[in-house]
Amino acid sequence: MSTKHEKILQYIESLPVGDKISVRQIAKEMQVSEGTAYRAIKEAENRRLVSSIERVGTIRIEKKKKENIERLTFAEIVNIIDGQVLGGKDGLHKTLTKFVIGAMKLEDMMRYTDAGSLLIVGNRTQAHEHALTAGAAVLITGGFDTTDENKRLADKLELPIISTSYDTFSVATMINRAIYDQLIKKDILLIEDVYIPLENTAVLRSDQTIMHFRKKNASTTHGAFPVVTPQNKLVGMITSKDVIGKEDDEAIEKVMTKNPIAASMKTSVASAGHRMIWEGIDLIPVVNDDGILQGVISRQDVLKAIQTAQRQPQHGETIDDLVKNEMRVIGDEEVMVEFTVTPQMTNQFGALSYGAFTTLLSEVGSFALKRRKRGDAVAENMTIYFIKPVQMESVLTVKPRILDMSRKFVKMDFEVFNGTVLVGKAMMMFQLLER
Predict the structure, then answer these.
(1) What InterPro entries does UniProt report for this protein, alphabetically (predicted)?
(2) Where is 317: in which H helix or E strand?
């Protein structure tokens, strides 16, 4: 059985995109307290099912697929730029395909403005009208208003007119930053984006027997199943290995693995994949905070998701990407890496930041191990010494050295030079990932 919290989330998800909701309405509709309704609406906001806007309320928005995550809804734009909605509130759930800055003549402006666009412009009321007629929303900068006729047209066409006190340049920068952040998030696939939901998951109950496992195994060809209570609370996992040599009438509860490894919706796919490799498992159950089974994710799902992400044409740059872009391999027999410190990698004093330095050493170590044909590796622990501060635009040389290597772990030593001056040292242990 689902909890009240889950039922409210399911109800919100079933609402048409664009519907307004309130705490009082949800409490009355679902016959729960206003506190329970409030917490569920906040969770729905975290899951990007709704968006709360001052003076408008909370509206149901479209939950975007990962491949389209760089698109923002007009509701999100309102929140980003602290805007006020002047008209067209019913269109806040729509997504914008591009934004156009109206710093040109009207006819030139309209050449670039089409359906799904957002025209960013000042107090040019004629431009507001033309944009709406072309199917675009309008963002008015400088805190200006528009005409009542334009507001009525926006309501009729369900295209928002938004006003903000910021200037055009600031607004464009803020929206660009939001899209850029979304591009970075697009790389970080979460389990909630790729998991198999409970209704499509084969499960066994703790009060069933090995015979039920064998029947389920024959009908689905799956080799592992989550074990749940009648309330769908996860209590174990059972695999083909667990039932070898067991009698049909033996209880599943006696042979299953209790307290199994589980993941949440917000666990990253990469993290789940690493966990599967380390633990030698092919299936991880997905649970909520109360331990109720939500679905499963398999090793095949992880591989498919990562392949899909790699095919995406656009990516935002994380600090890892920035560091990798500045790395150049020098030397053939002995691996050495040359690295240029850019302004983005410095702290408030203009010196190389601790985070960028740590990332650099991790990347160099992983690369050196790949050169030795040891596959992928993850840094497990490290001891780092900054001997001298490294200023921006310095060119560093990193020299990794393998001290000890076993089947699972590698200990490495690093020396970092700025010219001929030793500026840093580190000792790191890597865990090798089995293929």
Answers:
(1) CBS_dom, CBS_dom_sf, Diverse_CBS-Domain, DRTGG, HotDog_dom_sf, Ser_kin/Pase_Hpr-like_N_sf, Thioestr_dom, WH-like_DNA-bd_sf
(2) none
Rounded CA separation 374/303 (Å) = 20
- Please name which of 369, 371, 343, 370 lies closest in space to residue 356, comparing C-alpha atoms: 343
The overall average pLDDT reported for the chain is: 84
pLDDT band, residue 65 (cuts 50/70/90): very low
Pairing status of strand 117-121 against strand 327-330: unpaired
pLDDT tens-digit readout, 148-188: 999 999 999 999 999 999 888 788 878 877 766 665 555 56
Whole-number pLDDT of residue 212: 93
* Burial class of residue 330 in the structure, from the number of CB atoms within 10 Å of its CB (0-12 exposed, 13-18 middle, 19+ buried): exposed
Residues ≥6 apart with Cβ < 8 Å to 186: 66, 67, 69, 70, 309, 312, 314, 315, 316
Q: Tell whether 198 and 282 lie within a shared domain.
A: yes
Report which of 368, 376, 379, 377 is spatially closest to residue 331, judged by C-alpha positions: 368
Measured CA distances, 97 to 117, 135, 173 (Å):
6, 12, 16
**182 and 237 co-located in one domain:** no
Alpha carbons 260 and 280: distance in angstroms, whole number: 13
Q: In terms of domains, do 70 and 172 share one? A: yes
Q: What's the CA gap between 261 and 363, in Å, rounded?
A: 29
CATH at residue 57:
1.10.10.10
The total of structural domains in the chain comes to 4
Nearest CA to 136 out of 152, 151, 156, 158 is that of 158
3 state DSSP class of 54: coil
Residue 314 has what pLDDT?
Answer: 45
CA 391 – CA 353 distance, rounded (Å) = 10
Domain endpoint, select from 243, 273, 308: 308
Residue 66 confidence class, pLDDT cut points 50, 70, 90: very low
Q: What pLDDT, on a 0 to 100 scale, did the predictor assign at position 71?
A: 63
| Residue 374 binned pLDDT confidence (cut-offs 50, 70, 90) | low
